[in-house]
Design goal:
Blueprint: H1 7-45, H2 49-63, H3 66-81, H4 85-115, H5 117-132, H6 139-146, H7 150-161, H8 163-174, H9 178-186, H10 191-225, H11 232-243, H12 246-281
Helix pairs in contact: 1-4, 1-7, 2-3, 3-12, 4-5, 4-7, 4-8, 4-10, 4-11, 5-8, 6-7, 7-10, 8-10, 9-10, 10-11, 10-12, 11-12
């Protein structure tokens, strides 16, 4: 007979230890994230919806094309016409904050993994575990540590969305032609100069693909985070599920799709422009 291992009990003891000894840290994280999300949401809601739609269209025109600008303008007007503007801006604020924090953690970790085989060997199985863990499971520790509201939704979202950025940052830098790196070494370039002036610019399309994946995963997680009071479009979809309201669920889902398409095309175009600008300095 196989002996029973008290894995669950040990996990609960570890969580209790963290709560008892690091409550101050969780409160600090909660305060910072809530301030960032609320501040960005206030900023997004400051202009009238039509003005915001025009600004979004101008940004899309500058980054990509007139066709994308027209789509963005009409798509954001569609969100306002469905009376989901406030919820959409709350979701957009949560996604942007979660993405910024996730990328700020993931990209340096990916760079560190390229420089240290030990870090790479340790990080890889952890990322495998994070990417195979069901999305709903992320809500449990988030609620335990941060309670109900926008903060656990943001924490669960950024942790769930972070692995692709780590993987693709490491993959992109490792994929840089070694002859170019060796030539830079031969000319006496320092390791940090090689990293920031050669490797990162050449790996930028792959890194931006990772950031794009972070945004898409964050949007998918935001809907699930509506179950723990994160608000926004996730709350709209969750209420539609509980009330079996097909119309409201479709409208909430359509608004999420609009944001996803806009952010996907925007980051893709920004990645191309950033690489072109970076390569001019190589």
């Amino acid at each position: 007979m196989v002996p029973e291992l008290p894995i669950g009990q040990n996990v609960e003891r570890f969580v209790d230890f963290l709560i008892d000894n690091f409550r101050w840290l969780f409160d600090l994280i909660a305060t910072a994230l809530e301030a960032l999300v609320d501040g960005l949401e206030w900023l997004l809601l400051l202009p009238p919806p039509v003005v915001m739609a025009v600004l979004v269209g101008l940004l899309a025109w500058w980054v990509r094309s007139r066709g994308f600008a027209l789509f963005s303008f009409l798509a954001f007007l569609l969100i306002e016409s469905m009376d989901l503007w406030t919820q959409a801006m709350a979701t957009l604020a949560l996604v942007l904050v979660a993405t910024i924090v996730a990328v700020a953690l993931a990209v340096p970790l990916g760079i560190l993994a390229t420089r240290s085989p030990v870090v790479s060997a340790v990080v890889r199985p952890i990322l495998d575990f994070m990417q195979t863990l069901p999305a709903f499971v992320y809500l449990i520790p988030s609620v335990i540590f941060f309670g109900i509201g926008v903060v656990p939704g943001a924490v669960a979202t950024l942790i769930f969305a972070m692995p692709p950025a780590v993987r693709l940052t490491e993959l992109g830098i490792r994929g840089v032609d070694q002859e170019v790196v060796e030539a830079a070494h031969a000319f006496g370039a320092e390791p940090n100069m090689i990293l920031f002036r050669i490797q990162i610019p050449l790996a930028l399309p792959t890194i931006m693909a990772g950031i794009n994946q972070v945004i898409m995963l964050a949007l998918s997680m935001v809907v699930i985070a509506g179950m723990v009071g994160a608000g926004g479009l996730g709350a709209v979809v969750f209420r539609a599920i509980t009330n079996i309201s097909i119309g409201n669920g479709f409208e909430g889902g359509l608004a999420v799709v609009v944001l996803a398409i806009f952010l996907d095309r925007l980051t893709e175009s920004l990645g191309t422009r950033s690489q072109q600008a970076a390569l001019k300095t190589v």
